[in-house]
Amino acid sequence: EKAVNLKKDLAEMQEWMTQAEEEYLEKDFEYKSPEELENAVEEMKRAKEDVLQKEVRVKILKDNIKMLAAKVPSSGQDLATELNVVLENYQLLCNRIRGKCHTLEEVWSCWIELLQYLDLETAWLNSLEERVQMTENLPDKLDAVNDALESLESVLRHPADNRTQIRELGQTLIDGGILDDIISEKLEAFNARYEELSHLAVSRQIALEQQLQTMRETNHMLQVLQENLAELDRQLTSYLTDRVDAFQMPQEAQ
């Protein structure tokens, strides 16, 4: 009777493993939304926990069959053969579910990491847009233009590492058919805004550099003119002080 019960337990265990394999490993999943992906991750975590909890039951079966084999070798031998098959299938099931759970967790982590990089770069784009707007309607002063140019250039020196991560993470998920529509839409919107603002910022940078150069040249010309006028004023004052007749002065002084 004990052998019959153990045989029944082995059959039930094998049936449960077959059902678990069909439910968790053979279904075709399509992750078209973050919610679907997150639910799949949680389901696989529960599946892994459920399968690992059966380890106690498997151990009890193994111990009972060993005890029976010691007492009734003939019955125990047949059960031991069935047990080996169940143990092999159980270990395979554990490994596959662990593997799938790990893969889904990695995919979810990849998605979260992509969102974080997009948030960082979106914040940078907001800052760049703000700096570009600050370059409009500047007062016609050298310091104001110079400060605006330095401020814009400091934002433009932003490294490209985050954008590289966004591109690689997004492509990895899209290649796997995971959230491909959502990710493609997000990347398209981000890249379009990045290209637009980058071109606008570089154009404003060039315009400010040219404006700054013109202002510096003008200031230099005014300074030279002012120095020449001061020298002429000094000479004229000297002539007047010495009561020199105008017709005795050089032509330019007249």
TrEMBL record:
Coiled coil feature spans: 3-64, 208-242
Short name of any one Pfam family annotated for the protein: Spectrin
InterPro entries xref list: Spectrin/alpha-actinin (IPR018159), Spectrin_repeat (IPR002017)
Keyword field: Coiled coil
Domain of life per record: Eukaryota
Protein name: Utrophin
The organism's taxonomic lineage, starting at the top: Eukaryota, Metazoa, Chordata, Craniata, Vertebrata
